[in-house]
UniProtKB/TrEMBL annotation:
It comes from Jannaschia pohangensis. GO terms for molecular function: acyltransferase activity, transferring groups other than amino-acyl groups; hydrolase activity. The chain crosses the membrane at residues 16-34, 46-67, 88-107, 155-176, 183-200, 206-223, 228-244, 250-270, 282-301, 307-328. PANTHER family: ACETYLTRANSFERASE, ACYL_TRANSF_3 DOMAIN-CONTAINING PROTEIN. It comes from the Bacteria. Keywords: Acyltransferase, Hydrolase, Membrane, Transferase, Transmembrane, Transmembrane helix. This is Peptidoglycan/LPS O-acetylase OafA/YrhL, contains acyltransferase and SGNH-hydrolase domains. InterPro entries: Acyl_transf_3_dom, Acyltransferase_3.
Length: 352
C-alpha cells in the first residue's frame, strides 16, 4: 500500500494517534512536575529523548503532512489562514482566560487586590496569545511547587507550529509546493546541516529541531505516490535508530523512524480503530490543559510520585479536552466559512 492510496479520504487513525501523543506529553511532564525540574523520565535514559519529545515529533510530522495537503487541496490564502487561526486560538484563549481569571486568584499566595494589581496578571493573556512573547508565571502562583512558577509549560511549541504554517503558506503562495519542492528541500537541507554545524541557540535552535519532522511530513505529502507503507521498513528504521544512538546522526535517524511510523500507524491498522474518528479530536485540548491541571494536582495533594500525578490528572484533563472539543474547537472550526467570507471581503474592499 502506497501512502497516496492510504491517505485518500478521512478514514484513518490520525485522531487516535494524536490522542495517544498528547497523553504521552502528559506522562512525560509528570516526572519534572512531581519530582522537580531536571528529573529524567525512564524513556529518556533508554533512548536519550523524552517521551514528550517523541510525541511532539509525531505531532509535527502529522502536521507537516496534513497542512501541506490542506494547501494543495484548497490553495487560497483566506481559507488557509482561517483554518489555522480557528484551530489554534479559540481553545487557547479559553485555557488562558480560565488560568488568569479562575486558577490564578484561587491558587495565588497574594491577596486578591495584590494579584489584580500586579502587571503580570494583565500581561499573561496578551503575551501568550502572541505565541512569541510567552509568559509562564502568574504572581504568587506555584512559587513553592517542585517545578516552580510555570503555569503552562507546553505552550512553547505553538510558536514553532505557527512558524511552520507560515512556511507552507509562503511556499504555497510562491507556487513552489507543486512545482519546486525538490529545490525547497535542498535549501532546507543546507539550512539544517548548517544549523547542526553551527549550533543554533534559543528560539532558532528550537525551530531548527522541530522543523525537521514538519518538513519530513511535507516531503511525505509531496512524494506520497512513492512511499510504500510496510511493517518491515518501519522495523528496520526503528532498529537503525536504536543502534545509532551514540552516532552524530542519532537524532535525525530517530526523527526519520518516527516519521515513517507516524504514517504507518495513521493509515495501516484498520478495523475497530477507525471508529475513533467519530468521537472527535481531543488531542489539542489534552495538550493545552494537561500542564496546568498537573500543577494543580501537585498543589492540591502535595508531594507525590510521577505515576500518582498521571493517575490523578488524566481524568480531569480528558474531561476538559472533551469539553474543549465539543464546546469550543468544533464550533470554531464550523465558523470557518464565515471567517473566510470576511477575510475575502476585507481583501476586496478598496483602500480609502
Amino acid at each position: 500500500m502506497r501512502l497516496a492510496e492510504a491517505s485518500e479520504g478521512r478514514d484513518n487513525n490520525l485522531n487516535l494517534l494524536r490522542f495517544v501523543a498528547a497523553f504521552a506529553v502528559l506522562v512525560s511532564h509528570a516526572w519534572p512536575l512531581a519530582s522537580g525540574r531536571g528529573t529524567m523520565e525512564p524513556l529518556e535514559g533508554l533512548i536519550g529523548h523524552s517521551l514528550g519529545a517523541v510525541a511532539v515529533t509525531v505531532f509535527f510530522v502529522a502536521s507537516g503532512f496534513l497542512i501541506t495537503g490542506s494547501w494543495v487541496r484548497r490553495p487560497q490564502v483566506a481559507d488557509f489562514v482561517a483554518a489555522r487561526v480557528l484551530r489554534l486560538f479559540p481553545a487557547l484563549l479559553v485555557v488562558l482566560l480560565a488560568t488568569v481569571v479562575i486558577l490564578g486568584p484561587w491558587l495565588t499566595d497574594l491577596s486578591p487586590r495584590a494579584y489584580v494589581a500586579d502587571p503580570l496578571t494583565w500581561t499573561y493573556l496578551p503575551r501568550n496569545l502572541s505565541l512569541a512573547l510567552l509568559q509562564y508565571d502568574l504572581p504568587g502562583v506555584f512559587r513553592t511547587a517542585p517545578y516552580p512558577e510555570a503555569i503552562n509549560g507546553s505552550l512553547w511549541t505553538l510558536f514553532h507550529e505557527a512558524a511552520c504554517y507560515a512556511l507552507v503558506l509562503a511556499l504555497g503562495v510562491a507556487g513552489w509546493i507543486t512545482g519546486r519542492m525538490g529545490a525547497v528541500f535542498a535549501a532546507y537541507a543546507v539550512f539544517y546541516l548548517g544549523g547542526a554545524a553551527v549550533g543554533f541557540d534559543g528560539r532558532l535552535g528550537l525551530f531548527h529541531g522541530l522543523s525537521l519532522p514538519f518538513v519530513l511530513g511535507m516531503a511525505g505529502w509531496v512524494w506520497r505516490d512513492r512511499i510504500v507503507l510496510i511493517w518491515p521498513v518501519g522495523l528496520a528504521l526503528l532498529a537503525l535508530a536504536l543502534v545509532s544512538r551514540d552516532m552524530p546522526w542519532a537524532a535525525e535517524m530517530l526523527v526519520l523512524a518516527l516519521a515513517y511510523w507516524t504514517a504507518l500507524l495513521a493509515y495501516r491498522p484498520g478495523g475497530m480503530l477507525r471508529r475513533w474518528n467519530r468521537m472527535g479530536d481531543y488531542s489539542y485540548g489534552i495538550y493545552i490543559w494537561a500542564f496546568p491541571v498537573q500543577q494543580v494536582v501537585v498543589h492540591a495533594f502535595g508531594p507525590m510520585t510521577p505515576l500518582a500525578n498521571i493517575a490523578l490528572s488524566a481524568g480531569p484533563v480528558l474531561i476538559l479536552a472533551v469539553l474543549s472539543w465539543h464546546l469550543v474547537e468544533r464550533p470554531a472550526l464550523a465558523a470557518r466559512p464565515r471567517l473566510v467570507a470576511r477575510l475575502r471581503a476585507t481583501e476586496a474592499s478598496p483602500i480609502r
